[in-house]
Amino acid sequence: MNQHKASWLRREKAFAAFATGPLLDFWHSREELEFTGVGNLTLRYVRFTSPQHKRVILIVPGRIESYIKYPELAYDLFHCGFDVVILDHRGQGRSDRLLEDSHRGHVAEFTHYVDDLETLYLKEIISGHYQQRYALAHSMGGAILTLFLARQPQAFHAAALVAPMFGIALPLPSFLAHRILDWAEKRPAMRDGYALGTGRWRAHPFGINRLTHSTERYRRNLRFYADDPAIRVGGPTYHWVREGIHAGRNIISQVDKITTPLLLLQASDDRVVDNRSQDLFCAAMAAAGHPCEGNKPRVIDGARHEILFEKDEMRAEALNAVVDFFSSHH
Fold first, then answer.
1. How far is Cα 132 from Cα 312, in angstroms, rounded to an integer?
2. 32, 120, 33, 106: which is closest to 63 by C-alpha?
3. End-to-end Cα separation, the chain, in angstroms
4. Could you tell me the sign of the dihedral formed by the alpha carbons of 37, 43, 48, 51, in that order?
5. What domains are there in the chain, each with its CATH number?
6. pLDDT, tens digit, for every residue of 262-280?
7. Fewest Cβ atoms closer than 10 Å to its Cβ: which of 56, 209, 235, 324?
8. Phi, psi of 267 (to 5 degrees)
9. Helix (H, G, I), strand (E, B) or coil at 30
10. How far is CA 132 from CA 153, 156, 320, 326, 328, in A?
11. Please, which residues bridge with residue 134 across strands?
């Protein structure tokens, strides 16, 4: 275990050899499964299991992501002694889409994500006879998981929220954004169209990315989408943005129901989600009497939004924090 953790600090130096060797072998051990979500959509997920493992981590990815992007994280957690289950949300990854233009990031109601997560939890996590159950969520997945925990506070022994989307970094002042979203909501053609300044998926060069400082991981992730057009998702619809904003407000209003031990990791250089909303969430949790670990977000200094796809040093800091936090709650 410690030897495995030590490898986190020097992986990028020989990333190609790792990705095409041990990581590829591990990926071949996966089981790809599916279940029926809200509205009869087929939702897909992947799992990595060992009869030796008594602990499980459910990974809840962010917007546009697929489990195709998560083998490295699954590999590391698996080698720390956890079974790993990763969901592809409705409208993205290998799961069914909601609109004819499969690139549009869309959801009818944000709670449908939460309902789907609950279905998978009951199917895969509870029925698995695990002694310890954990959840790790990134970005939009953080909002989904947090709403699930307000429903089912006993579901997991602990949960880690990585750069959770409790507020979206908007390109406009919020009063103006709300006005536009409310206007678009009343016009179906606008409502389900791409939000301002977004469009179909396209490959952006590393130099202008706002997600990570790691060239190796960024290029690898880009390749997944480039090689497999079916998993591409572009910008969100106006309706999705509106649902996402309402979800953030909904979370703050339900903090008193969330009693699961939580670790919140914040990227100091995040330009995708609004870090102030994470600070507000931790303050509200503390006021409700069940503070996040350390009473406030744990800041990963210098990290961009995708903390678990960052350069080795930042990624290892975050991953160590998560694994240690889970190990202390059993």
1. 28
2. 106
3. 18
4. positive
5. 2-327 (3.40.50.1820)
6. 999 999 999 999 999 999 9
7. 324
8. -90, 125
9. coil
10. 14, 8, 18, 9, 11
11. 57, 158
